[in-house]
Amino acid sequence: MNSSIFSAIFLLKRVLIGSIEHIFPIIISILFCVLFIKYSKLKFSSKQQYKALHALGCLVSLTVIAFHLYKISLEGYNITTDLPLYLCSLMALFIPVFTKYRKYWMFEILVFWILGGTVQGVVTPDIAVGFPSFDYFRFWAVHLGVLIIIFYAIFVFKMSPKLASVFKSYFALQAYVFLMILINYVLNANYFYLLEKPKSASLLDYFGDWPYYIIVVQIILIPYFLLIYLPFYWIEKRKKRIEEKTI
């Protein structure tokens, strides 16, 4: 009886600690994102806004680089599992290119990749070692960092995708998938989970075994991107109505 009680308490403790480790960085990032955007809009000049966004982009990218240098220093770095080729890590690695040049075609691709893919990672995190490991901080810095960057671009720089952006982002993702297929073949790896689902719980668990989950994702991807595009469409439509009334 006592052992059952202790087991239940231990399980409850693990769940609570896991929940705190999951929820706390999200709450902190939401607060930071809101304050960062509001302060930038009120206090920064355009030049300062560009510098602030680029500084954040560089910080996110340097976190990825530092983490991989750290793992290499420990030895046992495995190119079949450890390279920064998963979509979120790859985006984080190259996000300074977007924050530096702010090209619209980059935004068109990133907005759906980040809002579509990174959010899923935030909801169901795949972290090998929990708090207070480097992997824990790297995971949240990458996933929440790129989300803050894309929200900054939306709310500060007023960047907004078009309907055509949905398909541009989709086909760019297909190019990435094709590249990962080649790399997985050469390295006998599983980047982007194209050969096996992640060990941790994820939405892919609801889509069947390999290769069915890949097929299901391909089928729902454009409707999913369209769903993400919908708020932007409504906002743009509302703006046009207001403009027509003022004319």
TrEMBL record:
Keyword line: Membrane, Transmembrane, Transmembrane helix
- Keyword ATP-binding (UniProt): no
Q: Which InterPro entries match?
A: CHP02206_TP0381
Q: Which residues cross the membrane?
A: 20-40, 52-70, 76-98, 110-131, 137-157, 169-192, 212-235
User: What protein name is recorded for this chain?
Assistant: TIGR02206 family membrane protein
